[in-house]
Amino acid sequence: MAETFEQYILRVMPGITKEQTGLLLSKCIVRKLHKKEILLKEGDISHYKIFVMKGLLRNYNIAENGNEIIVRFTDEGEWTTDPESYFSGLPSKYNIDATEPTEVVLIHQEDLLTLKQQIPPFALFMVKMMTDNANLIQKRVLMSISGSAEEKYLDFIQTYPSIFKRVPLHMIASYLGLSRETLTRVRQGLANK
Q1: pTM
Q2: Among 53, 65, 98, 155, which has the minimal tally of Cβ within 10 Å of its Cβ?
Q3: Helices marked H in 147-179 — which ranges?
Q4: Is the pLDDT at 1 greater than 80, yes or no?
């Protein structure tokens, strides 16, 4: 499975040398997760950047009423963490778990800082990744504030077609900030068009 991550590195970090790739790989921890296995628990501190090689993760919070509030899905070839906890050292407000059997690469925060200093292509990639994530978050916030239930649902299907097919309806509803009943009505309305 480390070969998958190595191929990814070579694809997204042009100019990285064989030695730099070896150094980066030496700092990686590969972990296999079972469905529903928690990688980060609310109250713990997020010390790792997480890359999904296979499977799907979700970042979520449990509200006081017991409802799950999903803030993010992380599919294969994507990175995640709890950024607030990761950068501040404060306890996480979120859980990260596997929605299906998942394989991840973990890079500890201290190692990541060292790697960014020693591997310029990696440092450039991290800046690009953070910029891309900020743009996705901004798009999601705008859709959440201004989109109708139907627009949110259609945007989710278009943005995350593979995730849409792999998670139950209640998780999609949670991610969109809708009740399951509202999402069911939206889906039925679209089917009748």
Answers
A1: 0.92
A2: 65
A3: 149-159, 161-164, 169-176
A4: no
